[in-house]
Amino acid sequence: MASKAALLSLAALPLARAETVLGLYIFSRHGDRTPKALKPTNLTSLGAEQVYASGSWYRSQYVASDANTPLYGLSSDLVNLEQMAVMAPPMDNVLQNSALAFLQGLYPPAGDFSTQELRNDTEVTAPLGGYQYIPVNTVSTAASGANLENSAWLQGASGCDNAVVSSNNYLSSTEYKTAYDDSEAFFQDLLPVINGTFAASAANFKNAYAIYDYVDGAVVHNQTIPSSDLLTNETLRELKVLANEHEWGLAYNSTDEIRAIAGATLAGQILSALNATVAGHGGKPLNIQFGAYGVFLSFFGLAKLPALSDDFTGVVNYASSMAFELVTNASVSDRFPGADDISVRFRFANGSAASVTPSVYPLFGQDETLLPYSTFVSEMSKFAVKDTPHWCKVCGVTAGDCATASSGSDGEGSGSGSDTVSNNKSNISLPIAGVIGALVTLAVVLGAETLIYFFSGLMLTKKSTLAAAQAAAAGNAKGKA
Ligand SMILES: *[C@@H]1O[C@H](CO)[C@@H](O)[C@H](O)[C@H]1NC(C)=O
Ligand SMILES: *[C@@H]1O[C@H](CO)[C@@H](O)[C@H](O)[C@H]1NC(C)=O
Ligand SMILES: *[C@@H]1O[C@H](CO)[C@@H](O)[C@H](O)[C@H]1NC(C)=O
Ligand SMILES: *[C@@H]1O[C@H](CO)[C@@H](O)[C@H](O)[C@H]1NC(C)=O
Ligand SMILES: *[C@@H]1O[C@H](CO)[C@@H](O)[C@H](O)[C@H]1NC(C)=O
Ligand SMILES: *[C@@H]1O[C@H](CO)[C@@H](O)[C@H](O)[C@H]1NC(C)=O
Ligand SMILES: *[C@@H]1O[C@H](CO)[C@@H](O)[C@H](O)[C@H]1NC(C)=O
Ligand SMILES: *[C@@H]1O[C@H](CO)[C@@H](O)[C@H](O)[C@H]1NC(C)=O
Ligand SMILES: *[C@@H]1O[C@H](CO)[C@@H](O)[C@H](O)[C@H]1NC(C)=O
Is the CB of 45 under 6 A from ligand 1? Predict the structure, then answer.
């Protein structure tokens, strides 16, 4: 009896001992916002609530003193700025504000925890109940700090020449032409709903995302949508399917990986941050970045997630987040575990983590949802763009920052998986970081045309649209529409 009980409790031990989460990288979309077609775009109250709730979920999971799986070494109530890094593209109010709202959920006002006693015994509590100030660092843009939210042409603003060419190729592909022709009547039929903003000449597949975005915003916020009876469930569904097809086409192509430069750059940033935690025995355990849905899509493609489900080719919902956990079962009481004892787990929530608990998915077409750290690194390295010289090379850029960055690089293999880029000191720096930031505007790729109509007064005919749009975009690249 007694020995059986002892055996049972022994057997239960490994199960009972919780895993330790050693590091975490969160990449999140912004919350609900006003439509791209109606400038300036703002985070709505609903959107702020979504990201705030998401941040609160991450707090209850990883940060609070009673968190489910507390992040090793992370301060619970009072933020320690050395333990985390937060990034969002500059001059993008929607993403910057989303990051701030998320952080308020993650580290709410500290109240009594922030109260300090002066020498003369007076107690002082910081303003706003001990509001915690967490800087959101900007990801610099290669495109001369242009206002991303308003810049016209996504890949153009990224400065990655080869990616621009690749995305343009989508717009002249047979897939695109077929979708354009097949959906022309559908979009024209929507005009009574959208003609306050979209001209008849703009009601087509070219603006699939911008129109979807506009109608979706109206369905949530507008009490008086013109001809709203046209917006049946079937029509709304079709609108979303078309928008998804269009955005996926721009974000990823399995035989032309440069199109997914946004995901490749994010992968490089994730590798770099996680390595800092593993190799640095702790380092900054928490990294958070806010960015656009286009980054999700291109990363999904690169990580072979669409093999699990076509859902991964659809635009993710507002406040969606993906999280990469560094986990171990090894003891952490006397030393930080070595890389061999560390694994990586991937989670994704299609919406605010507070309402859609992040689920575990296997990456890279593998079966396991828990990958040895070394496997994760080698798989990610197959497509990750790790540093500036690498970015310059795959993007075919030699000017600007690339002129200096490339001087140190020798003839590494042409495969983007090359692991040999160890010759430079820089981490992800300006041009690369800029891609992530610039891709925020993936959302506008189609809206671009809309902008051009409204602000440049260009009348684009169906035949010449592509060339005209490109010319206009080039002219607009630095402009704030
Ligand atoms: C965004 O906010 C600005 C300033 O408050 C306002 O002028 C603008 O109309 C808002 N945009 C939309 C689409 O509501
Ligand atoms: C204590 O010191 C603070 C800061 O110098 C001052 O504002 C406050 O009036 C002092 N309180 C008393 C009771 O002296
Ligand atoms: C993907 O790339 C291939 C090869 O470049 C091309 O033939 C195909 O049309 C592209 N597909 C799309 C949707 O762009
Ligand atoms: C939009 O369409 C409706 C219904 O067809 C029409 O009455 C209205 O005049 C149109 N508005 C514009 C700005 O074209
Ligand atoms: C919202 O409703 C107003 C009428 O109250 C209409 O003029 C406007 O076009 C609508 N906006 C959208 C995005 O449907
Ligand atoms: C349309 O979809 C909404 C939300 O999913 C649902 O509540 C409603 O019943 C649907 N309407 C019809 C006519 O199917
Ligand atoms: C990982 O980090 C360590 C320590 O910071 C550094 O020496 C090493 O070069 C990094 N490795 C990679 C692949 O980035
Ligand atoms: C997320 O939800 C959107 C909207 O419902 C859908 O189009 C997309 O495919 C979903 N993505 C995933 C990965 O589930
Ligand atoms: C830790 O052990 C549990 C129970 O055996 C297992 O389910 C889990 O995957 C392990 N985690 C890691 C990181 O190895």
Answer: no
Structure-model confidence comparison of residues 407 and 324, the more confident one: 324
Mutate to test the pocket of ligand 9, among 329, 331, 367 (most ligand atoms within 8 A of CB): 329
For residues 283 and 143, membership in a common domain is answered with yes
Is 31 a residue whose pLDDT tops 90?
Answer: yes
**Sign of the torsion angle spanned by Cα atoms 361, 364, 367, 370:** negative
- Give how many domains the chain has, as a whole number: 2
Here the tokens at position 31 are: 């919350």
* Rounded Cα distance, 320 and 314, in Å: 12
Angle between helices 261-279 and 388-395 (to 10 degrees): 160
Task: Tell me which residue has its CA closest to atom 7 in ligand 8.
Answer: 314
Q: What is the pLDDT of residues 136-161, one digit of tens each?
A: 987 643 322 333 333 323 444 567 88
Looking at 195, 225, 250, which one is the last position of a domain? 250
User: Ligand 3: which of 155, 169, 313 to mutate, most ligand atoms within 8 Å of CB?
Assistant: 169
Residue 385 lies in a domain: yes
Same domain, 374 and 419: yes
What is the distance in A from the centroid of ligand 9 to the CA of 329? 6
* Band of residue 478 on the pLDDT scale cut at 50, 70, 90: very low
pTM over 0.70, yes/no: yes
What is the domain extent for residue 221? 164-250
Task: Please give, one letter per residue, the 3-state secondary structure of 58-72.
Answer: HHHHHHCCCCCCCEC
